[in-house]
Specification:
Protein name: Esterase
CATH superfamily: Hotdog Thioesterase
CATH architecture: Roll
Strand content: 35-45%
Organism: Desulfonema ishimotonii
Pfam family, one: 4HBT
Number of strands: 6
Low-confidence stretches: none
Family: Belongs to the thioesterase PaaI family.
GO molecular function: 1,4-dihydroxy-2-naphthoyl-CoA thioesterase activity
Shape: globular
Number of helices: 3
Mean pLDDT: 95
Strand order of the largest sheet: 1-2-4-5-6-3
Length: about 150
């Protein structure tokens, strides 16, 4: 059974990132399952730290992006929207080039909070980072300017 409020479309989700940090670091959503979503991010000059490896903050950007999109496409956009409340990340393996792939799935989907687990892997499918993101589910006070669905 799908957790999504409506059937999400990859093209629409990817277009939603135009003119944002997500576009700048070239995060691209690649797959949506019934209870998970997946995106990639290149490991290059935009995402390196000075030692030439993936910056931990870039990993966190990918993790929070997955959780934010997942949380927002799982609620009724006419009634709620979701924002990040807390994030943690454990960096397990360094990556110096290629792509990292993040897979996000919910651990908890409540009325006021959601908790998402994000697993990042390198191109050899080795775990590079694991993150947990708590999302606040908020009621609309005013109409949000954009819709992902």
């Amino acid at each position: 059974m799908s957790i999504w409020f409506a059937t999400p479309e990859l093209d629409k989700i990817n277009r939603f990132a135009e003119n944002t940090l997500v576009e700048h670091v070239d995060i691209r959503f690649t797959e949506i399952g019934d209870d998970y979503l997946r995106a990639t991010m290149p490991v290059d000059r935009r995402t390196h730290q000075p030692m030439g490896i993936l910056h931990g903050g870039a990993s966190v950007v990918l993790a929070e992006t997955l959780a934010s999109v997942g949380a927002n496409i799982s609620v009724d956009p006419a009634k709620n929207y979701c924002v990040g409340l807390e994030i943690n990340a454990n960096h397990i393996r360094s990556v110096s080039d290629g792509l990292v792939t993040g897979t996000g799935s919910p651990v908890h989907m409540g009325k006021t909070t959601q908790i998402w687990e994000i697993r990042l892997t390198d191109e050899k499918e080795r775990l590079t980072c694991i993150s947990r993101v708590t999302m606040a589910v908020l009621s609309h006070i005013k109409k949000m300017p954009h819709r992902m669905l």
